[in-house]
Amino acid sequence: MSYTVAQICEADRRGQAAAVALLQKEGIRRDAHLDYTCGVYDDDFTLCATGSCFANTLRCMAVDSAHQGEGLMNLVVSHLAEVQAQRGNSHLFLYTKPGSAKFFGDLGFYEIARVPDNLVFMENRRPGFSDWLKQQPAARAPRERTAAVVMNANPFTLGHRYLLETACGRADAVHLFVLSESFGPIPAADRRRLVVQGTEGMEKIILHDSGPYIISAATFPGYFLQDSDEVSSVHARLDLAVFGKIADALNIGARFVGEEPFSHVTGLYNRIMQEELPRTGLECVIVPRLKKDGQAVSASAVRQAVHDGQIEKIRPWVPDSTWAYLTGPHGEKAVEAIQKATNVVHH
Question: How far apart are CA 24 and CA 62, in angstroms?
Fold first, then answer.
């Protein structure tokens, strides 16, 4: 029997439905974040395998159980790699179940980190993660006086600055990782610039781009998992498995995170951090939220006010640089995107 690999366009409802049905049959839910999908068809044009991309990741790959062992996953991965090459992406990532990690290893992917019994994070470059670690600026402070903060800063608020000021008050050096993914209403380059402007004068901060190795909740693949709490739990544990390796390389002794009294997802994430970080020799410091007039300052609250057309409300919550961005010409497209979004809280 011969097989054909072809794109399944978003407008192809029958093809998309067949791909969803195949994924469900193999115990996988379709990811909400996909920008390309393909199918492998037999001579009768029956869908036998499928796979997708999102940015530089390969996702939602499955072979019908009736056709497993016929090399169809090789066809899917090869096709998606060609699509990524045409996009200019040579450094690729995927998430897979632990039982499939060896198979993808044989296809040239290497493990970065794993959550036992749940998920393995892989890339197609053997030294990719280690080379990235070597490029990160280190501090000369001892481990017990070196801290880290990870943030999306979408946008940077006075709450973010308060978290960093607290970390700087406890440490001699603070590694600040800003998520590099271009996902959400504010472009990554703009978010980074607002962080630089908002932390001016904070000499203890060492700024890092997160690269592809610190995974945001927005792009973490939950399609292997059964419910939202399980997705959040596994995401947190994978993030911490990767972060533990970063902490070892940069001699980090503590991670500072903001308290989350409102979001169930972030609250769960923080609880898992409190459990897991001490097991790896890292302190987890939960910092209470900065409040202004009784209101907890958060990026979510800022986006909600912008979405609702109440931009004057955010003035006490953001630095001058963020205010100038959101009310000036450089931030017009970001404000428009926030106002058009149906859900501005979880970005």
Answer: 10
Phi first, then psi, for residue 18 (nearest 5°) are -65, -40
- Backbone angles phi and psi of 82, in degrees to 5: -65, -40
CATH 3.40.50.620 fits 137-340, yes or no: yes
In the three-class reduction of DSSP (H, G, I as helix; E, B as strand; rest coil), residue 130 is classed as helix
The CATH 3.40.50.620 portion of the chain extends over: 137-340
Q: Widest CA span of the chain, in angstroms?
A: 70
Measured CA to CA in angstroms, residue 59 lies from 76, 217, 220, 273, 313 at distances of 11, 16, 11, 26, 40
d(CA 109, CA 92): 9
Question: If you search the block for the tokens 């009736």, which residue do you land on?
Answer: 66
Please name every residue paired with 207 in a beta bridge, in sequence order, or none if there are none. 176
User: Which tens digits make up the pLDDT trace of 127-168?
Assistant: 999 999 999 998 889 999 999 999 989 999 999 999 999 999
CB 287 within 8 A of CB 148: no
For residue 155, cis peptide bond before it (omega within 30 degrees of 0): yes
Cα–Cα dist 59/54, whole Å? 7
77 burial type by CB count under 10 A (0-12 exposed, 13-18 middle, 19+ buried): buried
Q: What is the mean pLDDT of the chain?
A: 90
Burial class (CB in 10 A: 0-12, 13-18, 19+), 2: exposed
pTM to 2 decimals? 0.88
193-221 pLDDT, tens digit per residue, is 999 999 999 999 999 988 888 866 545 55
Contact 208, 137 (CB under 8 A): yes
List of residues 6+ apart from 254 with CB closer than 8 A = 146, 147, 148, 167, 170, 171, 282, 283, 284, 285
Number of H helices and E strands in the chain, helices first, is: 11, 14
Q: For 4-130, give the CATH class.
A: alpha beta
